[in-house]
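Q: Structure for this?
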Amino acid sequence: MLLEAEGYDVIGEAPDGTTAIMEASRLHPDLVLLDVNLPDLDGFQVAERITAHNGAPAVVLTSSRDSSDFGPLVSGSGARGFISKGDLSGAAIAELL
Amino acid sequence: MLGLRRALLALFALGVIFAGLDVALALTSSHEDQKVVTAILGPLIGLSFIGTGVFAWWRRPLNRFGLLMTGVGFAWFLAGLTESNNSTVFTIGSYVEPLYLVIVIQMVLSFPTGRLETFAQRATITAGYLDVLAVRLPFFLLGGDISGDLTGPRPDNVFAIVDAPDLADVFDYTSTFIAVVVLVATLVLLVRKRQAATPPQRRALAPMLWTGLALVGLLGIAFLVDILGLPSEIGDIAGLLALISFAVLPFAFLAGLVRSRYSRAGAVGELIERLNNPEADRSLGLALADALGDRSLKLVYWRPSAGHYVTYDGRPVELPEAGSGRAVTEVEREGIRVGAIIHDASLADEPGLVRAVAASAALALENERLEAELRARLDELQSSRSRLVEVSMFERRRLERDLHDGAQQRLVALSLQLGLAKRRLEEGEEVAAGAMLDAARDELARALEELRELARGIHPAVLTDRGLEPALEALAERAPLPVSLDQMPAERLPAPVEAAAYFVVAEALTNVVKYAEASTAAVRIRRNGSYAVVEVHDDGVGGADPTIGTGLRGLADRLAALDGRLEVHSPPGEGTTVRAEVPCA
């Protein structure tokens, strides 16, 4: 809702990490906005899998926690960056891309 | 050992030769009324001393008691020289005749070690020897009458230089008087020896002590009769009874040995019966005290995990030192130390008995050891549990305060700001409303940050989700000084161990930041056998005291709950090392 209000086009949604990886390779989006807390895998693993090959979509991680909670996990996951949910906005995402 | 045995056999053979000589002297004596009796009893008495003495010497080569007893036998045979018709042999025999009595008194006083232990004992025995060998010498030299009451041909005193029998008699009386004093002193010393003895010692002393008391008392009476000029029949009876007591001594010694062997077998048998009787409800310590006849006996149990002995109640206990009158016999079961018996030092003379009793009680002792270990752990558990409750109460209060002072205040402020912004909007002041909303967002961001900080303090999510290393990496990144993670375990550790390790590092780093004035800190975590070892070292000022402040104490208690340990090494000026050991199977 927030993203669409700010002009992003949402082409797919996934309820868990495994589905997210499949949907990302099927739909070839420009951006995957990924919650760190997922019911099956965790967001860092999913980010690594999605960004593992060339031409992969950009991944931005988000969580209700702060990036300092995760330390170097964020930079090690292949994600473009991390935005805490409280700060989530189209402008914040655009800054990372 | 074989050499000693051969020498002792030779000694006994020598004794037999002496006995033969004595028999020959007695049978050919022209002044002996009781030839047959003397020829039979004399060698029997002498050989019983030499035989028993040689036996004791062989069994306990380092104990001088056997030597003394053998000496009594030979001295007794020397006294037999008075049976000789030859004046020279007779005079020598007369001179050394009382020697066996001094040696036998020394033997009784020094039983069972063969060594005189007090100054009074040594002085008394020295006086005895001086009396016999020195005080009596002038009596011989002055031509004293050495064959006064003999019947038949009277051998001459060949030591006589001058003929002054009256003056000689002065020395004779003096010597008898000194003999009485020595005997009275010996009586007192024997009674004292008994009083000073512990019950197990007393039991071992009894046969020898009572026979010795009778001998010394009767000899004293015989000499007194002589000095005071009382009817000689009394002296003769006392002398005869003294001789009987003397003859009985070797058998008293043997009786003591048999008695302690018998009591050993009896004690062990009784103990086994008692241990096998499920209805016997008295403690093992009491059963052992009864079996060994030592009321002061104490049992202690080995705690391998702590590396020291504990009492039945699980309290740590120190073993008595050597020379304290108490001795320690360790008890092993299948080669593993289970405990120790602290007993009277005199029982150490019978190590076989203590060991036999200990061996038969080893299983029961092992059971009691486990109970004692359990009680000791329970004690530690109770105290660490109550400290944990304290710590958790303290943490709850801190949480409540932090929530109240922090996030809650900010949310209240936020509510007020939103209310104000709404009013501004209603009043159409959109710019002012926007500014207020910005302020509200800032307030909200700070509230969120504080809540996150709190949540991390309770249990960081990344630790649960990703494990120790990512959690520590995040912790190191947040720290205001460079923290290097030098060594990390290759695999995940059990969750409680990881949590404990995490909080050790977190608390240690908090202290480094607060107090250490350090420029860097290093963290090392490794597995060492069944332990995880966590070390946090900084290059700061050192001098940290772990007993001050709740942080490290609380950590120590958390670790104790896992059977772990916390050490702080912090010499002033050399930085601080916090080291924790957490068991992880």
